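Weekly modeling sync, notes
Attendees: S.R. (lead), two postdocs, one rotation student

Agenda item 3: backlog of single-chain predictions. S.R. asked that every request posted to the team notebook include the full sequence so nobody has to chase files. The rotation student volunteered to paste the first one in as an example of the format we agreed on. Action items at the bottom.

Example entry:
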Amino acid sequence: MHRLKNLIECHEETSPLNTIVSLQKPTDTLLRMAQIKGLRIITYDELVRIGQAYPTEPEPPKPSDTAVIMYTSGSTGDPKGGEVGFWQGTTEKLMDDFRDFKPTLLTMVPRLLNKLYDKVMIETEKKGLIAQIIMKWAIKSKVNQMERDDFSQNTLWDRLVFNKIRYAFGNRVQVVISSSAPLSAEIANFSRSVFSCQFAEGYGQTECIAGCWQVPGDIRSGETGIPTPVNHIKLIDVPEKDYYAKNHVGEICIRSQAVFRGYLNDEMKTKETIDNEGWLHTGDIGQWTNNGTMKIIDRKNSVIKLSNGKYAALEKIENIYIRSRFISQIYVHGDSMQNYIVAIVVLDEDSIKKWSNETRHSYPVSISFEAKSKFWQAVFHDMIQVGRTQHLMPHEQIKTMAIINEPFTMENDLLTPTFKIRRKAVEKKYQKLLQDLYKHINA
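Predicted structure, as returned to the notebook:
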């Protein structure tokens, strides 16, 4: 009763409070005090009777409801439940959504920016050499302009090149954020030029949200900025990869109040990820630059030691090969009992059509490893050329590859909600195909 009295006495007219539920029957004095203050007091039993008198229809869960558990990518094993919500449209309608809703802030994964770049460059190539030269100079000029802190969108290059692309996104974008995977400097400069606004690259995980972030005015491509205010970050040695913290490179460890408490019902995995001092071991390899910013260069868990003693960082290699004009998705596989790495490739349909028209071949409706030799060679040689351009070592280049028809999707359990390949699932599904690739190499 004492708390009820205090609540009544502290009540102000501007407060939205109008009814108090008391677990005990209030005294007449408290009822009069409440009436003077414009409050109504009812007991818990009265509340129950009111509810019984006005039953409501049950509301079943809807796709738009907030979820309780958010899972990590599961790219190296079973997804782990970190403790948020989900509802999503279809990627096929994404560009329509951009035009309809005219967003001012875009959070993009590199995969989407890569596809935007590829589509624009393919269209530019069709227009000839002059169009390609204009595009090259447009990007270079816009980057130089933004280095002077000038993000204006009314330049000659905007009118010639970028306005058309920007209008496809609603022409109101003021901030673009790229996260979830490394973004090449080439794609970052292109994206900055297209949107001509604040473009930030960030680094984080489900387990710690945002570890690093580029501050406004930082337009260095390929870097993920400085640690966010709440985070402490250190690098630790990874001797098996010849990464040492004394050289400002190593596995990224993060400690802060933003780090998650642990995986749901998985104490063992939690102890593997968070050490006794509270440091989250991310599994990502980072490098401190001369600017004091973080650069993500590798992934610890995707490194495999081949039988010849050399190491291959599979995800890094995938991020390079995805630049091939023919490739939509790629899985690079390594076997510790083999000297070479191989790949499974999902093709980009527009590039297939373009190649077919250029070479006067009929459009290959069904592409597989047994497809026409010329087409397979074209894809393979383009991948190798991309690898050379990006300075892959000989042992980091694939020895052979297979082309499949079925893309990696969330529906077939080969893709995570963040568009990352579930490596174990792909390896299991295509185990026979991978074995055949190695048999072909060793034949």
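Discussion: group reviewed the output briefly. The first strand starts at residue 19 and ends at 22.
Action items: rotation student to repeat for the remaining queue; S.R. to check formatting next week.
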